Amino acid sequence: MTLLRLPVVKKSLITALAWLLAAFFLAPYLEMVLTAVRPANELRDNSYLPHHFAWNNFLDVWSQTTIGQNLQVSLLVAVGATLLTLLVALPAAYYTARIRFRGRKVFLLLVLVTQMFQPTALQVGLAREFTSLGMMDSDLTLIVANAAFNLAFAVWILSAYISSIPAELEEAAMIDGTSRVGALLKVTLPLALPGVVTCVIFTFITAWNEFVMGLILINTPSRQPLTVGIDSMIGAYHPQWNYMFAASLVAIIPVVVLFASIERHVVSGLTAGSVK
Amino acid sequence: MNRRLLNASVLAAGAALALTACGSDSSGGGSASGDGVTTIKLVAADYGSNGQNPSQAYWDGVIGAFEQANPKIKVDVQVINWNDISTKLSTMVQNKQYPDVVEGPGYASFAQSGLLYTADQVLDPAVQANLIPSLAKAGDQGGAAYGIPFVSSSRAFLINNALWQKAKLPMNGNQAVAPKTWADVESDAKALKAAGVEVPLGLPLGSEEAQAESFMWEMNNGGGYVDASGKWAINSPANIATFKQLGTWVNEGLTEKDPGSVKRTDLYADFASGKVGMLNGMPIQLQDVQKSNLDVTWAPLPTAQTGQTPQTLGVGDWIYGFKAGGHASQVKAFLDFAFQKQWQVKFDEEYDLLPVTQDAVTQVSKDVPALVPFLKALPAARFVPVSNPAWDTVNAQVKVQIGGALKDPQGVLTTLQTAATQAGQ
Amino acid sequence: MSQQTTSAEPVPTPPLPPRRGAKAASAPRPTAAGGRNSLARLGPLPWIGPSIVLILLVVVWPVAEMVITSTHRINGLGIDFGFNGVGRYTKLFDDPRLGSVMLWTVLWTVLVVGFTMVISLALAQLYNQNFPGRRVTRWALIIPWAASVIVTSIGFRWMLDEVAGMLNRLMLDLGLIPSAQNWTGDAAHAKPWLVFVAVFVSLPFTTYTLLAGLQSVPAEVYEAARVDGASTWQTYFRITLPLLRPSFLVALVINLINVFNSFPVIWGMTQGGPNTDTSTSTVFMYILGQTDVGESAAMSVVNFAVVIVMVLLFLRVSRWNEES
């Protein structure tokens, strides 16, 4: 105990622990890398390292499967859903943060309930609805559906963030003759940027990783998002784990890059969201 | 003012929906347009692995040729992953958006509900006569054929010769002397185990395909899913005895651990890498075996007692026409076209599956000699009760639950029997 | 130090942009509706209308579809045998598997959320320290979040494979197990791993949320506590934890909902099997859908009921409805 009080000892212990934990969180994905470069005939070996490194698996998975197309779908859906979520959530978040109107509570409750219902629980209903609308197998369906299920979180975070920005600033702008929309765009939005960034990240990651709706709302293999495409690689007669993990790793990279580059904003955005 | 704005946003959303609805053009069955061209909708299962040899390409080929020969008919094909096709089809049927033709899952409950054309209505008599009789018969329900076999498969016992020799088990030239009875299986498995083989006997009873694996063992003990009169007999004494025997082997460590969770694809991969001594195999393994340079022996499935005739499993995937669209003549034209020898052979050789028409059998026997034992087994092969409308339900439950019968044969098989009799109601 | 800030001086307008920790001070300050500006006179619909449309279309409609479906007898291939009243509910409640499925669902939710929250508190505390490589080690935590849950789950299933699984090999070499195990082969072996993987994938989000909460605690508070002579643990339980309550609640609720509804972890690792031994109610619902769509919908509706109870509990706990 007394040793722990020494700053140097404490600090090196913390450092060692943090790095150990980092290794722990990375280890499963490292094993996926090792599997991804295993030649097909070594897949059922339990050697720690492959005897031969088949780096070309990363190229083969690209040229021989549909993941190129699946990747495009995922990008389109994640970007589309993110934009749509922002477009729809921002005005609602702003209004509920700024104005106390009749039905505000009901609206917020509705949003909260949305957060509680997840696509997994609704799959039969979703499939029936979009089949009867003739909207199966469409990118737009996935965009709309993903946006809807991310709406609650976005409204929540943005509303909390906007609340934390003093209304006096807008009022000052409005006294100068700016409209409320103008004040929102010119004054509040720039200040709320960290909240918007958080919202973008969360929606993007959730939509990018979404699995259930991609599975039930899309029929054609080449039009499915990447998550579903990856999963179907082990469903067939010849499970190709190496290709599957190669594709999975490709799918992780864009999110990690995006996330790591704006991690700082996420933490500050979440701060706002959690102070209610 | 408020209301108008609300209306506007609802309208906008509605318009977006309507637009996409037009864009995706999937309003149930096909349709006839003004210029006399009729479109029929085909929903087909994907047999490709990992999108590498997608069935889409096969159907695009067939349809391209068909549309050239029949300019008044267009075929709109939707290829769906095997694992999901039942669910997707279920949603279409729930919404009464029936396709015109389906290739893949069982036909029985659609036929029972009167949704399907009979084979007579959508297939030329000459083509029907060309079908292998045992397969065609499995498409019968109540005396009329609704399901038309499109592609088939059969099973045989598969042995790794190298492991066989390692365990000093008898060989006949370069072929293993295969076990004829379950007693042989047991003693051979023990020898393999003693020689250090990881999995002497592969027994994939995981939910993926457990209904077939169980059936193969049951039928060689005089059991099966139904009795001679067609009544459910899942908890028959023969089946219970079968699972007792399999359970004993599991407990003695002659199989992989927990066969109830083992997928056949994983086990096939283990076989190909030389870890499994013997198992019930199928033609798709020919490729793996060849790729890994394994010496193997194909043999009839072993029987419970000496002197019994070995039985094997036949599997058919079905094609059938839905009545809702009213396109009998167009469906007929398409099916007659797709059952031509060249298209049949192309499909079978692409996926190592077996043909369903006699002229294609002749051709495939010539092209792929390795398939001959399977082709020969086909006429006498037995099928799971595909024509029973309750089968689809029973099948799904058997797949999930029957692995548990290794530990509790009486209990699990009785639960399944109860479920099966209730599913029929 | 802290004493001085309670001077009689009027609190100045919060500086811009808002600092962390300044938020509680500048809490929501909604003005009365129908203020001076013109758009306000249009009422809330132009602002919240699109959200409502989206929610009605994508969330409420399927819920209605589910409720209707649950009153019909529909087989696994979608053939509708007509209205069945509460028949599917009766069948569901008579199903001998339901009891153990619900029990496991509760246990699953409590275990996964419990472990996740406790471990995340510790992780957040750790990552809130200043040490070399803090940024890099935080990024490592991002990876399980960035990887889709289905991929991570399949990855673990692969590592636990009896023949080729690396974890089997590792535990064997470390002498932890006598022989390679089929970890996903039976419920007793599979359940701890399922919980482990579910916690593994829930940690990043939870840790980040709590980390954000920790960073919003003003440094002066800690200094005051130290001046008062409080020990590290006293500070943590008396000061840090209470201040963390808002972010803790957010993380708790989101985790409860996500874990209760969790599908990919169990689906990716055991598909709810063998039998339905590792199925939670969500996975069970999916399995039922293969044989009886109506019963599956009934299971969904029961799930909704559970979720609504959870929402009501949350509203009580967070006293959300008092703030209005």
From TrEMBL, chain A:
The chain crosses the membrane at residues 12-30, 73-94, 106-128, 140-162, 183-205, 241-260. It is a multi-pass membrane protein. One of its GO terms (cellular component) is plasma membrane. Coiled coil: none annotated. Residues 71-262 form the ABC transmembrane type-1 domain. It comes from the Bacteria. Keywords: Cell membrane, Membrane, Transmembrane, Transmembrane helix, Transport. GO terms for biological process: transmembrane transport. PROSITE patterns: ABC_TM1. It is found in: Cell membrane. Pfam families: BPD_transp_1. Its main location: membrane. Belongs to the binding-protein-dependent transport system permease family. This is Carbohydrate ABC transporter permease. It comes from Streptacidiphilus pinicola.
TrEMBL record, chain B:
SUPFAM superfamilies: Periplasmic binding protein-like II. Transmembrane segments: none annotated. Keywords: Signal. The keyword Signal applies. The keyword Signal applies. Residues 1-23 form the signal peptide. Pfam families: SBP_bac_1 (PF01547). PROSITE patterns: PROKAR_LIPOPROTEIN. Gene3D superfamilies: Periplasmic binding protein-like II. This is Sugar ABC transporter substrate-binding protein. It comes from Streptacidiphilus pinicola. The lineage of its organism: Bacteria, Bacillati, Actinomycetota, Actinomycetes, Kitasatosporales.
